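Suppose you are handed only these lines of text.
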Amino acid sequence: MTSDKLQQARSFETQYAAFIPDAERPAFHVTGAIGWINDPNGFSCYKGEYHLFFQYHPYSTEWGPMHWGHVKTRDFIRWERLPAAIAPDTDADRDGCFSGSAAELPDGRQMLMYTGVYRVRRPDGRMEEFQQQCVAFGDGVDYEKYAGNPVLDGADLPAGGSVLDFRDPKLWLEEGTFYMVAGNRTEDGSGAIRLFESADGTHWRYAATLDASCNEYGRMWECPDFFPLDGKQVLMVSPQEMTAIGLEFHAGYGVVALLGSYDKAPYRFEREAVQAVDYGTDFYAPQTLETPDGRRIMIAWMQNWATTGCKPQGCRWFGQMTLPRELSIRDGRLVQNPVRELAQYHGRRVSYKDVLLTAGATSLHGVEGRMLDMTVTVRPVDGRESYQAFKLHLAADGNCETVIRYKPASSTVRIDRTHSGFPYDIVNVRDFPVRPAGGAVKLRVVLDRYSLELFVNDGEQAASMTLYTPQSAQAVSFEVIEGAARIDVEKYSLEFEEDAQ
Ligand code: FRU
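From them, the structure of the protein bound to beta-D-fructofuranose can be written out as follows.
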């Protein structure tokens, strides 16, 4: 049965979302029908389609009592809107349906698992927020919350686990058993990832703690995911309160991949390597699914909690997802590239080979636009690093621009949105190390109206960034500082029919 609260959210989105023109949204990145979104939730296959839910507050562009919004797709690029899926409307989740996941059950139902939140005022007047895990079952549109919710609460945690920070269950089914990982604050104030198992999805038991921050990589670990990839096991977490470590981890909200091995019998995860997942300004709370053809696809909230106050005045939607990305492991590192389905939306191809760049900015005929997929390979002239820096200027119009810069001497890439429409004193620049092969660096840029995603050297590093540059800023140019370089450019415009969101 649809509760009043859910019905109210559904009516609100139906009534008002139509007032937001398509041209004022990203062309192929998911946004909410209206209002605020954060984390991706329930990213999963169901009956041959890919479903994505998300943290959703339709009534304003601020975070508020959390609902789950809902879209689905067949190709990760064109998304169909579905009505809001769940609302905070039961005792177990009366103050919010926080992040969680979904799975297709053998009996054909879709199961959602999420964090139910309720607040209680303490005798000293402060509010305390309790977090517990709940489930709901449905048909891909409508969901019935389980009457026995919560299915997991503080009593299920091992000693020292906080009942106030216990959230974001990521669910999967394996050989008839349900497994789930969730984030939990530990006694030292930092975070751990707990693994639970269940025979039926409603009766759960704590199995093991897979790994813990021990105050090394941030504090509380949110939104975990845990999956095998190319012979390794990946534990992905979103730590709060990171302190910066070199150019690998920036301060604040980060996303960390722990690569290792997993022994299922004793539930032991052995961490072997740690790396950042995205080196840009806007990337958090990623979630993955496995496609029927065996690909591991990741999507994330393309936003940073630290800058959620920085949005265009009067905007009707806020928060967008990244482009879904295919994950793999190469040379012991997590590699990510845009889903291959993006190529189905390639329009006109423009390509240049071996263009010699000397002092000053160069434009190339046919290379411009705000919805594009472009790869630029930069090589030194005669095999020597005969330049100080290479700069790619995007979304430019004389006043505005977004810049990607590569410096061969330090082997670093910088993304810079200082002039990309943000009138705020926020982080606009990030630098990160790359590994050029034979002196050449390959920069693949996917631009949508309000974002840039960069993939360096076939996905070895990714960097995501939101921008609010006016749409009329379409120019692209290439520049070499002090010296000369040669570039190859392959650029596709991205083209969508009008009914794409
Ligand atoms: C991460 C997060 C989750 C939580 C949700 C609430 O961005 O804080 O841990 O479930 O957002 O909206």
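What can we learn from it? The pocket of beta-D-fructofuranose is lined by residues 38-39, 55, 66, 98-99, 115, 167-168, 222-223, 284-285 (CB under 6 Å). The radius of gyration is 23 Å.
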